[in-house]
């Protein structure tokens, strides 16, 4: 087994959540299997999530927690993010983290013609989403817009490839057996660093 450098982001803004349990389960399994893993919890990060500017020429200075997150993102070979899906999208603070840190010069190079050059190539990613609504609603009625946003417009845009998405549904009031099954699947993923 190849040892990997893994960054796990608990993307739920609350201290206690299923997203936190999923992130911790992945982290514990990865560490137990010899991977070099770091875990970051969104709720512990102190930053202004509002980008606050109309372009990239006058960028807001990054707070220390954002610099540290970016350093870890550049360090990792595999990135894992757990998050709830709220109103079909990411929680506001998590979207703010992306808005503030996925910047030119650090995650992509806007110079040249055509699409910007990704600066985080050579890394893979896995997103683990939870939601209240059933998976089939997002897949068949909405065509999974958040999946495509994360895979192509955010993580893929800056170079992560492949980007896999796993979705656990009806997470607000789940049965214990369902949560146990979710944790087991994530533990296997952590063991494999996939």
TrEMBL record:
It comes from the Bacteria. InterPro entries: Flavodoxin_fold, Flavoprotein-like_sf, NAD(P)H_dehydrogenase_qn. It is an enzyme of class 1 (oxidoreductase). Residues 4-181 form the Flavodoxin-like fold domain. Gene3D superfamilies: 3.40.50.360. Its EC number is 1.-.-.-. One of its GO terms (molecular function) is oxidoreductase activity. Keywords: Oxidoreductase. Belongs to the NAD(P)H dehydrogenase (quinone) family. This is NAD(P)H-dependent oxidoreductase.
